[in-house]
Predict the structure.
Amino acid sequence: MSGTNPYMKGGPVALPGVRYKVSFAHEDSSVGLPVTVEVLPEELPYETAGQPGSLLSIALHAGVELEHTCGGVCACSTCHVRIEEGIESCNEATDDELDQLEEAPGLTPRSRLACQTVPNGTRDVRVIIPAWNKNFVKE
């Protein structure tokens, strides 16, 4: 599946027109991150998982392991991340995304689903992957 769910209405998304950076760090520093990626708007979309230009697609393109059990269609909460910097440059969360986020432990006001979060490039973005983020299907 690609980054759309036929049963959910997506919100407006603005793809970036300029280069910007996304830094991915894991809450557990022994995991091997951080990784900083320069996003080139002319190369978007990178992957078929998540919305075009989403943090999930950027992470997968950069080789950052980020769970996404549903394939990035906003049907689970395994790609839950915290946006520590640059959240104002990201699209607004839809009601469907907020409903899925309720299933993720450790929510904060900066919690988002990486598959649905699309930065517009006006700011660099810093993303934290929670240490407890698990795919219970694999466990």
Helices lie at 55-61, 95-101. The longest strand covers residues 20-26. The beta strands are 20-26, 35-39, 80-85, 111-113, 125-129.
